[in-house]
């Protein structure tokens, strides 16, 4: 049996603006506030990519797409520190090397729920709320 790779779609954050709430529950489903892992294509070469951590900020259920997960990409690359599109969130169990992480705010990954590889961690409420404040102020989320 061949495993089908389900590729996330990248969308501008304002295009998918919605109400954001913190509802993590390590029950096997990707919930807002959880960090999950999924395959993400490189922007400069969509044929290449890697498995990476993604912060779930919402879900999008509609007739066309089954149940999609909305997520923000995480990175441990220090060059994001001075980039206004990235917010420092510190360290967490999602990174096995305990490196400081950054979350990308200007692009949302829309991931088919079947494309989520595993749950990695729960981001604490304080850090999640700081991200929610930015999404509301910059991109019209509620």
TrEMBL record:
Keywords: Toxin-antitoxin system
Pfam family, one: PemK_toxin
Domain of life: Bacteria
Record-stated family: Belongs to the PemK/MazF family.
Full protein name: PemK-like protein
């Amino acid at each position: 049996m061949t495993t089908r790779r389900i590729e996330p779609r990248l969308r501008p954050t304002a295009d998918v603006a919605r109400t954001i709430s913190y509802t993590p529950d390590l029950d096997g489903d990707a919930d807002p506030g959880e960090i999950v892992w999924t395959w993400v294509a490189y922007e400069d070469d969509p044929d290449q990519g890697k498995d990476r951590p993604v912060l779930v900020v919402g879900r999008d259920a509609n007739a066309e797409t089954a149940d999609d997960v909305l997520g923000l990409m995480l990175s441990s690359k220090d060059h994001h520190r001075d980039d206004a599109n990235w917010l420092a969130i510190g360290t967490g169990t999602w990174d096995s090397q305990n490196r400081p992480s950054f979350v990308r705010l200007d692009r949302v990954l829309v991931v088919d729920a079947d494309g989520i590889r595993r749950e990695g961690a729960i981001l604490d409420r304080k850090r999640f709320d700081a991200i929610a404040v930015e999404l509301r102020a910059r991109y019209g989320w509620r």
